[in-house]
């Protein structure tokens, strides 16, 4: 699936795709994804993609308006391409730090697949359907990403299986300052250090952070954690476009992650 994401080069958008891949890789000091053809010269798009990558929570109204106006009906599609350019290099770096085999580049370019469909309707539920990791850890990972990207929608939700398995509001409240928590255990703190590294310092993942993941999680769990961070980070698309309104005005809403990896709301 990661190779499929790398292989996307939609018809008519190859130059824009090449530009955002170059910008996003540079923004986090990682090798950019390979791209088809020459990058466009578009300062507005480059500015938006860089802010999306560095800290999506502070995309300004002016940046958003300029992007939406310029992209028109392609805004959602282009935001999905930026997300791929932003996060696949992070996943590659994370997997390398954990000792996994490299993610291979595509042999041919895919000019036809809709990036939004591949990200949200294929990749996200594929990862959501994984069940090697216990539900509380999965929820802790999700909520850390929600806070870091300031996704109002994500912060308003609580996954039901995690609540049933012992997830509590006091535990979740400790995620923001997890190092000083007496409720989060060593295993959860190890995974949160790795989540933070993927989000903020993917080019310099400390060996101790990777060793902490390896000490507490199996290969399958470590892979799932890494993909979970990317799946959860798809919220950057909604945050960047201003579409992350919470589902409830007060408190939180319970939902379940179905066996197919799709959320099921009450």
UniProtKB/TrEMBL annotation:
UniProt-listed InterPro entries: AhpD-like
Entry protein name: Carboxymuconolactone decarboxylase family protein
């Amino acid at each position: 699936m990661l190779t499929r994401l790398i292989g996307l080069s939609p018809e008519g958008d190859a130059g824009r795709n090449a530009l955002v891949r170059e910008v996003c890789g540079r923004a986090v000091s990682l090798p950019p994804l390979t791209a088809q053809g020459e990058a466009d010269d578009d300062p507005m798009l480059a500015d938006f993609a860089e802010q999306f990558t560095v800290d999506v929570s502070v995309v300004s109204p002016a940046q958003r308006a300029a992007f939406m106006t310029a992209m028109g009906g392609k805004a959602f599609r282009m935001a999905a391409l930026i997300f791929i350019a932003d996060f696949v290099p992070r996943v590659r770096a994370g997997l390398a730090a954990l000792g996994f085999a490299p993610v291979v580049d595509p042999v041919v370019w895919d000019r036809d697949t809709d990036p939004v469909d591949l990200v949200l309707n294929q990749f996200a539920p594929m990862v959501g359907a994984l069940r090697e990791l216990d539900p509380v850890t999965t929820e802790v990972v999700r909520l850390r990403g929600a806070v870091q990207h300031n996704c109002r929608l994500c912060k308003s939700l609580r996954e039901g299986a995690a609540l049933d398995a012992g997830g509590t509001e006091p535990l979740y409240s400790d995620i923001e300052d997890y190092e000083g928590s007496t409720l989060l255990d060593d295993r959860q703190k190890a995974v949160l250090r790795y989540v933070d590294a993927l989000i903020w310092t993917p080019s310099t993942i400390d060996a101790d952070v990777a060793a902490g993941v390896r000490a507490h999680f199996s290969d399958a769990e470590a892979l799932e954690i890494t993909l979970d961070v990317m799946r959860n980070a798809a919220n950057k698309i909604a945050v960047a476009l201003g579409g992350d309104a919470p589902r409830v005005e007060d408190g939180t809403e319970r939902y379940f992650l179905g066996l197919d990896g799709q959320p099921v709301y009450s």
